[in-house]
Specification:
DNA_circ_N; DNA circularization N-terminal domain-containing protein; alpha+beta; 401 residues; two-stranded antiparallel ribbon; 3 domains
Length: 401
């Protein structure tokens, strides 16, 4: 059994982009518990108030002829207001705020400056979040992801390689355009939106070989993908859009081939960069579609939130090392905002209860019995997929409202 090459999988440590080395780091998770003790009672009652603020303690150091200048940059990063991205070797990137930073130098270690820094994980953007505010934060996170995706695609390694490396990325862009057009022609899309998407898809397919050439990649390709995805899925019924997105979550994902030439490996990496830009655009549109979706009950909202965590988590797991740190943070930010929105929405949705009765009764009777409203008989039929409204089984589901 092969041993893991740990050094090749470590993240390059930094805070706000200022690099440093780490000799020791700690993460302190926990819960906020209130212990209630009562007279003449041996067992306490422990009240759980939620997760405690998560703290990180880092022993960092700088060792070089320019350690003093690097230390000054790190001090400035620690003292700056607001949250920043902390990257730790085995933890990866996380949004934090610096609490304290102790700079240390010893007379016998010139060129070596150490720090003891305390961080706390970034929290909610505001103390009180309404559904509307949470939704606006989702759209802001979508814009942030689009910006990062454009920069990441522009960094695709094609310069200095044979033309077939750039052709591989261009071909994947054309495949992405064809995939979007297939969705457009398969599902019902608003007429005006369909025409706009058709023209945008054709433009992307025609310009693919210009957007990726042997001299470099243009981030505008990712911007076009994001615009097409947003328009296309925004012009569909949310239910149809979610079904279409299901089939695109793993676009271009394949096991890395081995035993090939260096040029072939570079071509595969360039193709994957284009495929990832496509997947990111779909994830951004997915977040926007959820903002337009309606959830009839609490379980449906909870299911949607779990799917968000799973889909974004899958793409985040494909981020490798420090090169993808910014993208990882942008994906985590959007995932967090969508989950926060759904969590806030879930609290306003009715829970679902299981009703048990000694005998079968018509849905009309149950609608009056449960809600005092016969018009809700169809709701009971639809929720339980009943073949006939006159025969509701002795055990069925109903909204608690």
């Amino acid at each position: 059994m092969a041993c893991r090459d740990w050094l090749s999988t470590l993240w390059r440590a930094s805070f706000r982009g200022v690099p440093f080395f780490v000799s020791h780091d700690e993460e302190a998770p926990g819960r906020r518990l209130v212990i209630h003790e009562f007279p003449n009672r041996d067992t306490p009652f422990i009240e759980d108030l939620g997760e405690a603020a998560r703290h990180f303690s880092v022993d960092a150091y700088l060792a070089s002829d320019s350690a003093d200048g690097q230390a000054a940059a790190l001090v400035a990063a620690i003292a700056r207001k607001g949250a920043g991205t902390l990257v730790l070797p085995t933890h990866g990137p996380v949004q934090v705020r610096a609490v304290t930073g102790a700079r240390q130098r010893e007379k016998d270690t010139h060129g070596y400056i150490s720090f003891r820094i305390e961080f706390v994980r970034e929290g909610a953007a505001s103390g009180l979040a309404t559904v509307g505010l949470a939704a606006s934060q989702v759209f802001a996170a979508v814009s942030a992801l689009a910006s990062v995706a454009s920069a990441v695609f522009a960094g695709t390694s094609v310069a200095g390689w044979p033309a077939r490396v750039a052709d591989a990325a261009a071909g994947t862009l054309q495949e992405a355009a064809a995939t979007f057009d297939e969705v457009r022609t398969t599902y019902a899309v608003d007429g005006a939106v369909s025409a706009t998407v058709r023209d945008a898809v054709a433009s992307l397919a025609d310009d693919a070989s210009v957007l990726v050439t042997p001299t470099g990649a243009d981030g505008a390709a990712a911007e076009q993908l994001f615009a097409i995805a947003s328009d296309l899925f925004g012009g569909m019924e949310p239910a149809d859009a979610l079904r279409a997105i299901d089939g695109l979550a793993d676009f271009g994902v394949s096991d890395a081939a081995t035993g090939r030439t260096r040029a072939a490996v570079a071509a595969a990496a360039a193709s994957e960069a284009a495929a990832r830009a496509m997947r990111l655009s779909v994830l951004a549109a997915y977040a926007e579609v959820l903002m337009a979706s309606s959830f009839v009950d609490r379980p449906s909202g909870i299911t949607a939130r779990a799917q968000v965590a799973e889909r974004f988590g899958a793409e985040m797991s494909r981020c490798v090392g420090g090169l993808d740190a910014e993208l990882f943070v942008a994906l985590a930010g959007l995932r967090g905002q969508v989950c926060d929105y759904l969590t806030r929405l879930i609290t306003d949705l009715a829970p679902v209860a299981t009703v048990e009765a000694p005998r079968s009764m018509p849905s009309l009777w149950w609608a009056w019995r449960l809600y005092g409203d016969p018009a809700r008989a169809e709701e009971i039929v639809a929720r339980n997929r009943l073949p006939h409204p006159s025969f509701v089984p002795t055990t069925f589901e109903a909204l608690v409202s």
